[in-house]
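Troubleshooting log. The previous structure file for this entry was overwritten by mistake, so regenerating from the original sequence record. Sequence copied from the archived sheet and checked twice against the printout by T.R.
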Amino acid sequence: MSEFTSPSFEHVFNKKVTFVARSASERKQEEPNAPMGDTEWSICHKFGITDAEFRKWNKLPMSGFVTILAGEEYIVGWKKKEFEKKSTPESNDQDPWSGAFTDFEEPVRPNPHPTWIFKREKDLKTTPSKQFKLAKQLIPSIAVQDYIKSWERPPGMDGGHGQIFRDTKGMRTIGYGHFIPDSEYPIWKAYDPEIGGQRSLTKREMDDLFSKDLEERSAVHVRKLFGNLKLSQGQFDAIVDLVYHRGPSSPLKCGLSDYLQRTMNKNIDPDKVRACFHYYDFWDNHKTGAREFNAGFKKRRLQELDMFFNDKYTLHK
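Regenerated output below.
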């Protein structure tokens, strides 16, 4: 006896709904305050769809930055296929499926196009609204501290390093990414195995050193730059990691601080924020004088953006 299979409705919702991306001038006709042409975020927001749905329907990469081309046609939804109504039934026999799907409802998400497919209310995951505080009142969360430690430990090690080691650029480092400049090196000689040093920091000492670095190298600068601006904890943490990794002036150089201050962190364009973070997919090679792409940097920026927008913290492996 064959197994019963529930009927599929894919053949019913198979009419594409498309939208032609607008240039900056075209978009301004409808949205006078729009800073640019259509972006992935603006299209998804306009039609009430998720970025995952948009990318899947248009066969775009599911991760990374997506460039929207003005004049290009994109799928933004699906409509019910219109079937011809037959004037007379083919048979007088009672339909055995009659009334079986009377509880099948049209999508319940409020939208101007009620025949489009969206997730049902029971499938929607409600996320609590973000809490915003003045940046000067925030401190790095435990989650971002664990996140930074996961990146700053030496490769292949579960914890920090109690002795001096060389990072990927050959710089002397100890603990969780504590850089040792030449002026500071004399006090660390006993911890340098390259010259026979035998001493090693305890985990408590590494944690204390990390806490001091996190405050002095990063958090204090973020509060100074964004002090009177209201940020969520995830936004604050993302910027703290950016500064810890790329230096105190990084939010200024990439334009992030200027953009958030100008918009007061309201109605921000996600693509503009992403562009600011992705400025640091590259690093300045002072030996060659060129800016060079680094895949690890890009991965870290993507994870910072996940913190910024979604309050999600993914430990580096």
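Strands lie at 15-20, 73-79, 132-134, 161-166, 172-175, 178-179, 230-232, 282-285, 290-293. Archived copy saved in two places this time.
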